[in-house]
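Morning!

This is the sequence you dropped in the shared folder:
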Amino acid sequence: MNENLFETQKNLTRKEKIREFYDKNKKLIFSFFTILVIFFIIINFYIENKKNDRILLSENYIQAKVLIENNSKEKAEEILREVISSNDSTYSTLSLFLLLDENLIDDEKELLQLFDYVLENCEFDKNIENLVILKKSIFQSSFAKEDELLNTLKPLLSEETLWKPHALLLIGDYYLSNYEKQKAKEFYIEILSLKNLDNEFYNRATMQLGIINNE
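The structure's back. Tokens below.
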């Protein structure tokens, strides 16, 4: 009997303490939960807006492609520039590549600036970032000086990346096209030293070395 009474008093004391704590801190508790609710509303709003923004970017990109097919290239260029300025890693990159592939901008310097803008302002997976660098290098190789091209390709040449063999082949072809055979040879030989490559790279490097040795 005494034990039950003691337990009942103990439970009452605990409830009183909880009630007392609640009475003293209810404003703080309500404030905390209000902030929490507002936080989740903002997060959901942000996520929803981001989804809507990406849908709009997708629609604009598709519209630009349709305009190009209909030979309305100036309007397509305007839309693609706007998409690039959105700093979306997917659609900014696709829009830049479309501008380049469709020759919508003739100014080489301006195109390089757009590449730099995308690389600086978009958050990429490392492999995608390296792909953008490679695409820039391929475009640049037709007019750039040696040091400029090497500087662009440096991130691909200095690490064991997916795109390193592509970069080695590009710089080898660059030197060969400029009749710098010894420099070209060094890069082709480096390709042959790499392991687990697609046979296409080995075959291309071997063929280019054969051309150099037979001249």
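Headline: The chain has nine helices and no strands.

More detail when I'm at my desk.
O.
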